[in-house]
Structures are given as C-alpha cells and as structure tokens.
Automatic annotation (TrEMBL):
Its main location: cytoplasm. It comes from Rhodoferax ferrireducens. SUPFAM superfamilies: alpha/beta knot. S-adenosyl-L-methionine binds at G99, L119, G120, D121, F122, V123, L124. This is tRNA (guanine-N(1)-)-methyltransferase. One of its GO terms (molecular function) is tRNA (guanine(37)-N1)-methyltransferase activity. Pfam families: tRNA_m1G_MT. The lineage of its organism: Bacteria, Pseudomonadati, Pseudomonadota, Betaproteobacteria, Burkholderiales. Residues 2-214 form the tRNA methyltransferase TRMD/TRM10-type domain.
Length: 236
C-alpha cells in the first residue's frame, strides 16, 4: 500500500488503515488466541474473547458514533464483486477481520460479524490476502487516485461497460513479432473503434462469462447490433 496507485489514496488521506493485533488482547504469558476445537478434529480455532476485546477497542477508537460494519473474510461469504467494491468505496469504512487456523469461534461471528466476504471458491491460509485485495480495489476507486479519472469506468464488470468483460488492449509498436494491431484501432475513426471494442467485449464475455452476458441481456443493456454480433458467433 506504500507504492503505485494505492499509495496516492493513502497519501491523500482518502483511505486509511489501522492494524490491530488480537494477541494484544489475549490473556497469559503466551497471549494465546486459539485453542483446540470442541468435538475434536484437525486444526485450531480462534478464541472469541480476545477478538471481542480487540473489536470493542477498535469501535471505541473510531470517531464515528455508529459502530462500523464488521467484515469477516471466509469461504462461507458472498463472492466479492465490482458492485460490492463500489458500495464499500463510498462507505465510511469497516473493521476487517482476518481469520486464521481452522476458523473462528462461531459465537464471535454470530455476535459481531455483519458481512462475510469470499474471493472465490478456494481457501487461503488467512484473511490478510483477501483484505489487501479489497483495500486495493476500494483505493483505486477514490477520486483522484487514478491518473485518468475515467479509467476505472472501462474496467471489466463496470456498469459503464454494461457489466461485460473488458476488450483487448494494444500499444506500440504496430507490429510485434509479426503480430499486428487490429486495423480498426489504427483507423482514427472513433465510431469504428468503439464498435470494435464493443464487439470484442461481447465476444469475450460470451466465451468466458456467459452469465454476465445473460445478466446484461436481462437488464436490457444489449442493442440490435450487439445481438446481431452474438448470433454470428460460432457455438461455444
């Protein structure tokens, strides 16, 4: 978070992160934050009490009178989407709980967690990587962070692209290892360029994420030219 695009968000105070260690709120010389699970089984489970003490201290330290949402990164959570990132980017912040070991005592989750978030159908060693992913996605949507204010409008999944995947991009030279840049992008004809990009978005989305294409069609985001292009594509 101290380099690249996200650095601008933090230096401008648009995004701020405070780190809290649950071990600082644990008892005993060893500051244990985990124990064996009731009922047996592999792994260790994070204790509810140190997490609760830590969370209460965090909420008390916040300037907002209303407690912040508590986000737990978990395979049980809703998959993180662009729409969700946009909501979080406009929010007043949240407490991000990064689990470890086999999991967290369910009583803490039931008592305090307001949102559970997953990056996808796989398991990480801890929630830190997921937290960094969310922070990066949120930071780049803050005003003034990207050099071109409209850059994020052309990201995959963005409503500005009707929720479709983005098109391929090319830069100089015009020919690289006998592969040329598509003629449409060299034409200087803005409508032709935009139609090419639109066709590429439709084709790639149809091939790789037909669910996104179905959602765009159901929302009435596809026009006649779009449908004509899709009908011309070979069956997948």
């Amino acid at each position: 978070m101290t380099s690249g695009i996200t650095r601008r968000a933090f230096e401008a105070g648009l995004v701020d992160v405070h780190l809290w260690n649950p071990r600082d709120f644990a008892d005993g010389n060893y500051r244990r934050v985990d124990d064996r699970p009731f009922g047996g089984g592999p792994g260790m489970v994070m204790l509810a009490e140190p997490l609760a003490r830590c969370l209460r201290t965090i909420q008390a330290a916040r300037a907002d009178a209303v407690p912040a949402p508590v986000v737990l990164f978990s395979p049980l959570g809703s998959t993180l989407t662009h729409a969700a990132v946009e909501v979080w980017s406009a929010s007043a912040g949240a407490v991000l709980v990064c689990g470890r070991y086999e999991g967290i005592d369910q009583r803490f989750i039931d008592r305090f967690v307001t949102h559970q978030v997953s990056l996808g159908d796989f398991v990480l060693s801890g929630g830190e990587v997921a937290a960094l992913a969310l922070l990066d996605a949120v930071a780049r949507l803050q005003p003034g962070v990207l050099n071109d204010a409209g850059s994020h409008q052309f990201d995959s999944f963005n409503p500005a692209l009707d929720g479709l995947l983005d098109c391929p991009h090319y830069t100089r030279p015009e020919t690289w290892e006998e592969h040329k840049v598509p003629e449409a992008l060299l034409s200087g004809h803005h409508l032709q360029i935009e139609r090419w990009r639109r066709d590429q978005r439709l084709q790639i989305t149809a091939q790789r994420r037909p669910d996104l294409l179905q959602a765009a069609r159901a929302a009435g985001r596809l026009n006649r030219a779009d449908e004509a292009l899709l009908k011309s594509l070979p069956p997948t």
